[in-house]
Design goal:
The protein has 213 residues and is α/β, with parallel strands linked by helices. 55% of the residues lie in helices and 12% in strands. The structure holds thymidine-5'-diphosphate.
């Protein structure tokens, strides 16, 4: 059995990750690739509790370092409890966000610095890295409009506003310019066009792993 892939999706809030993950899941299912979908923060019993603390708007006085450590705490749990065991069984894992979110949100936008994030990411993941990261790049004005159309209530992170989302986007693009693992996808295009790009990159990687897809 070929080894599974570890695929992550990144982008600012409202960039369309959920739709694209669902479309990739549909492809993997039809191609007979065993996969598991997870999300960060959360994805475990411990992690979902941490998620509630992180996203609760009542916690509007949370210290940025407390925030950083909670994201990393949830990551340590999901990595050891779900992601690594799944991969050891040859299962492809799709994660809705992973450590690049912490670089962009806490390292860049919260200005905690990328060195400290890098050290904590390493501790939380034990060195596990995604095989492919899809960065759905979208301007924050369009992303906000999309969230409005869906009628979603804002969580604590989303309530940080346009300037914060712009800093997150700039952080992501900076990282992508320095790491080939991160594929920048223009998320302003029609969703089928985006999905076919994501599926074709994934297919190529699966074939390289020995999958007959
Ligand atoms: P979520 O509702 O999952 O948002 P989305 O659907 O946009 O992924 O909320 C997760 C929020 O937490 C989102 O605003 C991004 C933020 N976040 C960080 O700030 N740092 C992190 O390390 C992670 C994983 C998420």
């Amino acid at each position: 059995m070929p080894q599974g892939l570890f695929i992550t999706f990144e982008g600012i809030d409202g960039c369309g990750k959920s739709t694209q993950i669902a479309m990739l899941e549909e492809y993997l299912g039809s191609a007979g690739v065993e996969f598991r979908r997870v999300r960060e923060p959360g994805g475990t019993s411990v992690g979902e509790k941490i998620r509630n603390v992180l996203l609760d708007k009542k916690n509007d006085n949370m210290d940025p370092v407390c925030e950083l450590l909670l994201f990393e705490a949830a990551r340590a749990q999901i990595t050891s409890e779900v992601i690594k065991p799944s991969m050891e069984q040859g299962i492809t894992v799709i994660s809705d966000r992973f450590f690049d979110s912490t670089y962009a949100y806490q390292g860049y936008a919260r200005k905690l610095g990328t060195d400290v994030v890098s050290d904590l990411n390493l501790t939380a993941t034990g060195g596990l890295k995604p095989d492919i990261t899809f960065l759905l790049d979208l301007d924050p004005v369009t992303a906000l409009a999309r969230r409005g159309i869906r009628g979603e209530a804002e969580d604590r992170m989303e309530a940080l506003g346009m300037e914060f989302q712009s800093a997150v986007r700039a952080g992501y693009l900076d990282m992508a310019s320095r790491d080939d693992r991160i594929r920048v996808i223009d998320a302003s295009r029609p969703r089928d066009e985006i999905a076919s790009e994501i599926i074709s990159v994934t297919k190529e990687s699966l074939i390289a792993r020995g999958y007959k897809v």
